[in-house]
């Protein structure tokens, strides 16, 4: 056992390098920086919005309309030009992002129910969060115009009634049911909130699996290239212990990296989501429905993630044996990437329950599918699916360890190579 721990310590020392520490530290800093930048852009988008206005009507209705826009947190700036073309050019040359043109005779046409359209001009100067906010401003302006005109008309015709009751006579109370729990709220709001909280898991898992697998394949390839693997195999310790030490060391480093990546991504999501307005009672709805991860939920999620990392490392160990040198090892990572990307995209864009049986069996046969689905299974209390997924990954890992141990127990570990033949073109 002492020899095994010495070998494990040696493998960890080889994996934990200064370059690894710098890359992880850089990752946290990068996520934090992106999160803060996104937070600033969102704050800009939520400030008072300026609207350049050319009022060619000058009627009481148009003035009341502009007063209503001011009440809706819009800063109205009047165009000093006399014509429409001059107003467009003036707004284009300035920093204005939206121009509102109220045509002449607007108030009179509305009083006669001869609706004359107003004109809005949106200037897209960039495609950032703050730059694309103009489309939302445009919708808000049109909505404000329609709401003001319809409310004003209904108040005159029916002074004793609330205009909102006339425009929306049917009221709806929405309820969401999850298992045996029910709460009043919007299903779309609940889904969006849960999605924003669980999106981190697939991304982090994909990054860690690819990174850890590349680390193992490259390490084995370097040992074969430098002939240090031959020396290691002469040490009086079981080949199975050598394989186990390599996988366990890589698994521990991968798990630590996953934790660091999750901390960094939490900074990113915190900056991105902190100032996004949600429904006032969404927190109470989530609590009533039990759609938040408890301590036991995090433990289950961690076990599922670690089992997936072990499967990836076991597969990477076998693929690393096929590498001839460090350069060829990079191309051997493609099978792992392929197996990770399939459940990664399906977990984002599809529902497993809606897939056909053959396709569903194929997807569930990929071990990396189960941690991608772990978060929603925990929230929906589908614990049987989680435990079966963990059990399947452990069996998959044990089979791969057995295969790797058989390879390491023979000279094939030194002679197995995967060469790509190059065909010569004869002219």
Strand line-up of the largest beta sheet: 2-1-3-4
Major β-sheet, in short? 4 strands, mixed
Structural class: alpha/beta
Order of helical and strand elements: HHEHEHEHEHHEEHHHHHHHHHHHH
Write up what this structure looks like.
There is one protein chain. This protein is of the alpha/beta class and 427 residues long. It folds into 2 domains: 2-39 and 186-415, no CATH class; 48-171, abc type-2 transporter like fold (3-Layer(aba) Sandwich), CATH 3.40.1710. Helix content is 67%, strand content 7%. It has 19 helices and 6 strands. The protein has helices at 2-15, 18-45, 60-71, 84-93, 106-111, 133-157, 163-167, 187-198, 200-225, 228-233, 239-273, 282-289, 295-321, 326-329, 334-349, 357-365, 369-379, 383-408, 412-415, and strands at residues 49-55, 74-78, 98-102, 119-122, 175-178, 181-184. A 4-stranded mixed sheet has the order 2-1-3-4, with helices on both faces. A two-stranded antiparallel sheet has the order 5-6. Strand 1, helix 3 (60-71) and strand 2 form a beta-alpha-beta unit. Helix 9 runs antiparallel to helix 11 (239-273). The longest helix has 35 residues, at 239-273. The protein is elongated, with a radius of gyration of 31 Å. The termini are far apart. Residues 275-280 and 420-427 have low confidence and may be disordered.
